[in-house]
Design goal:
The chain is mainly α and 140 residues long. The chain has helices spanning 2-5, 9-27, 34-65, 69-93, 98-105, 107-139. 86% of the residues lie in helices and 0% in strands. α2 packs antiparallel against α3, α2 packs across α6 (107-139) and α3 runs antiparallel to α4. The radius of gyration is 19 Å and the shape is flat.
Length: 140
């Protein structure tokens, strides 16, 4: 489903999740409250993935239906309002560490910058896999 929406969206979400695993594993050793850190990071990573999906939906809508610029601005403001609301809930209800959640949300930026690199790596791996299956078919 994600690939139908945008060709690079699965790679972007995969990079966000990989970033979340690395940040969680690297930071879990240095914090006092491991539970709040963990929930903060994963809430942030989930928020980053949700933002990526929402952006892809809005871009697809804008391209296919020629949405107005006002609608695009409204959707961007809605996205930021949800981020502020989630951070407010994290802080008020002590659901997680807000700094860890911010670090998790930054996974969207990191994944966006690293997506071309991940794409090249995935393509190389897929080519190797195709070559090995072709060689195996020729041997049979």
């Amino acid at each position: 489903m994600l690939r139908r929406l945008n060709k690079v969206l699965p790679e972007l979400i995969g990079a966000i999740l990989l970033y979340g695993i690395i940040v969680w594993f690297a930071g879990i050793w240095f914090v006092e409250d491991k539970f709040l850190y963990s929930t903060g990071v994963w809430i942030g990573v989930g928020l980053a993935a949700g933002m990526a999906i929402h952006m892809a939906v809005v871009i697809e809508d804008a391209v296919s239906m020629a949405s107005s610029q006002a609608k695009l601005i409204a959707m961007s403001l809605l996205r930021y309002a949800v981020v502020v609301l989630v951070f407010s809930c994290i802080t008020y209800f002590h659901l997680g560490d807000p700094i860890a959640a911010f670090i998790g949300v930054m996974g969207l930026k990191i994944a966006a910058y690293l997506q071309p690199f991940f794409h090249k790596v995935i393509m190389k791996l897929l080519r190797r896999e195709e070559c090995s299956t072709e060689n195996q078919n020729v041997r049979e």
